[in-house]
Each structure stands twice: as structure tokens, then as C-alpha cells.
Amino acid sequence: MTAELLTGWGRTAATVADVSRPTSPDEVLLAVKAGLADGRGVLPRGLARSYGDAALNAGGAVIELSGLNRIHTIDADAGLVTADAGVSLDALIKHLVPLGWFVAVSPGTRYVTVGGAIASDIHGKNHHVEGTFCQHVRSMDLLLPSGEVRTLTPDGEGSEAFWATAGGMGLTGIVLRATLDLLPITSAYMRVDTERPANLDDCMQRMAERDDEYRYSVAWVDSLTRGDAMGRSVLQRGDHASADELPARKLKRGPLKYVAEPKLSAPPWVPDGLLRPSTVRAFNEVWFRKAPKQHTGYESIPFFFHPLDGVLQWNKIYGRPGFIQYQFAVPLEATETVRTALDRLSSAKCPSFLTVLKRFGPANPGPLSFPQPGWTLTVDIPASTEGLGRLLDGLDELVVSAGGRVYLSKDSRLRPDLLAAMYPRLDEWRAVRASLDPERQLQSDLARRLSLL
Question: Of 199, 264, 297, 420, which has the fewest beta carbons less than 10 angstroms from its beta carbon?
Fold first, then answer.
């Protein structure tokens, strides 16, 4: 173990922990035993793409699991893959696409581990059709602090522990490996319909009317425009393109040829204040104007799913203060809440160049799983933004009053008194968690801040 200063992807609340990097399940168990000796508990950590303090454990032990990186089996007949918890979606996709398979759910970055995807129960642009990541997990091996390893499945005996682990923020045990359902594909390209709604109401109406016709749907939203153009958007919806529909120029290189390497890198030093309202407003104007009013085309898998992964360490563009990614979900009927939230953000001139709107489908059985039927809005805001704390506190209360919640994997500042209102099955999760870790040996900064345990 080595003492290291760690942060989330937002680069805000840094804390020091003793970090170990095991490369086998036996070494993970040794790391757990060593970490429990200091009394501050242990916490698993993947590739550090949770934005706030979910993967931090100040003064305690952090077990970084990216060394558990073996893909054990790919069953092409059944459409299943079994992989260690430290395997990244990037590695999985590189192996799977040339074989004619894709992960069932992918978030906006492929640099997350299987274990991290389970702990956050990640979602993607297809939640309205196919749900969350854990709805495609057939089984997982979970290491408890006692040293016991349990194999959990979503149905039958042990299912309560499975769904408590889905979105459980790494606080129910340490995932060692999992078996996942896969999606068959015949090309490495996406067929994408692009539209340019004039404002937020126009965008939400189009999504409500036709999202169910598409597997994937996402809207980029301009968070700085006001008046009749507030929330003008670029709406993209699509599905995996079949090989026989691809243009000839794309077939030349092979329909399943997959290339996804970062082309740029954020500079090691970025001046503070680079992302301010004037620069983001200019970016938003260009981004909106360059999008066609209506167009059908073909995009590569990485360009459609993971555009920011093309820039290594893009989180550094926010400068030394870092940034907050704020994501909330509210019921489908709470369209006015989404409108009010965007109005407050634009009134405060929050310089977000990444504001995204999606529509969620039905919730799953996980007590702490974030998605619920309705709308979800995500916004990136520099942490140095004046009055940011008051603004987000007000948005939290607005979201709670509408029956909504914020995403714990993105959170770094929610008040603990709002947690139970956002997650009404919290006590149910606590009871299952206590049965798996009665000594409360799995800990995190997020868990302590929110009195989650």
C-alpha cells in the first residue's frame, strides 16, 4: 500500500488514502485484510470516472482493481462474456466488436470497469429500451469483508444482495468478476438521425413522440440561450447499422473493423477561467449551427457513444478548481421541473458545454439504482462558478419536490437530509447492506458525507 492523493473525475474533493493494486482475487483478499487494520475501512475503485467522492476513502484503504483485467470467456452462441471486475468497457468493446458483439449498455465513456459499472449501475442512451447495465448482468462474484465470496444472480436466492450491489456504490462488497449479456451487431457503425429542435419544449416533444422508435436517443442542449430559444438542442437518435446498408466507402475497411484511440490530449496546464460564459456561448453557437436541421448518416461506434474519449484527460480543461457534474432525474410528467432547472442554469450563466437530456424507461429492482421513468438532465459546471452551491441546493429541492433524485455517482455535495426523499427505498438497501457487512467495514467519503450507512 502507498499513501496517495485521490480525486474523482471532477478533480474537486481530494483526499489521501492507502492504495493497493492487486492483480488476482487472492491479492484482493489480502488487500482487504490489510486495509481493515487501520479502522477507516476499505473501498474498491476502478478507473476513477465517478465525478465526486464515491471512490474516495479519506484516511482509509482504497483497492484499485484495474489489475484484475482478464476476459475469461466469450460465448458466441449464447451471447455472453465473463470478465474480471477490473476489465474496462474499452477492452471489452475492442474484443467484442470484431466478433459481432457489443455491450448491452454503454455510458458516455468506455473508460469504466465492469465493477465500476455495476457499483454505479450505469445507464446509456438506450435506457428507455434496455434499462441499466445491471439488467444485463447474469451473475457476479462478490467478495465480502469477512472473506466469503458469494455468487449473486438477479433472480431467486441472493437476488436482494444482487440488487443492493447494483448501484450500491461499492459498499456491499467487492465485485471480482461478472457474466454479462451481449448485443449482436453486424457492423461497427451507427445509423443516426439528427434533428435540431428550436428550444427545450420542441426537443422534449419530439423525444416523447418518437424515442420509442429508436434504440438510442440523446439530446445536446444549449444551457446559455434565453427566451424563445432556451434549450435549443441537437437531437440524435439511432441504432446499430447493418453491414448491408453501409455506404461502399465504409465497407472497404471491413464492416466490423473497430478503431478507437484518443487523437488529442488535454494540455498539462490549462488557465483557470478558460470555460467562462463567453467562450462556452461561442462554442455552443458553433455546435448548434453546424448540426443539420434534419439528416440521416452513419457514425462510428466511438464517435456516437464516446466522443469525449477522443481527448485524453479532458477533465483538465476546467482548470485547477475542477468541475461539478450535476445529474438529476424526474418523472415524465415533471416537464416543468426540467424547464425551470434549465432556466435557473441559464439565468445563472453557468458555462456548461456538455448539457445532455435523455428519457428514462422503467426502473429496475435496485434500491439505489438511479434511473426512474422520466427525464434526466446532466450539466457540467466549473466548480469556481459564483454562487454554485446555492444554485445546486435550490435545484436539489426542486428535484425532490417533483419526486426526483440526483445520481450518486456524479454527486459531491448533496445534503444528507435529502437522501431518503430521493431514494425512498434507502432503509431497505441499508438492511441488505448490513447483512453483507455488519461491521461497516466498507466505507467511502460519500457514505460518510451522506450518512449512507
Answer: 264
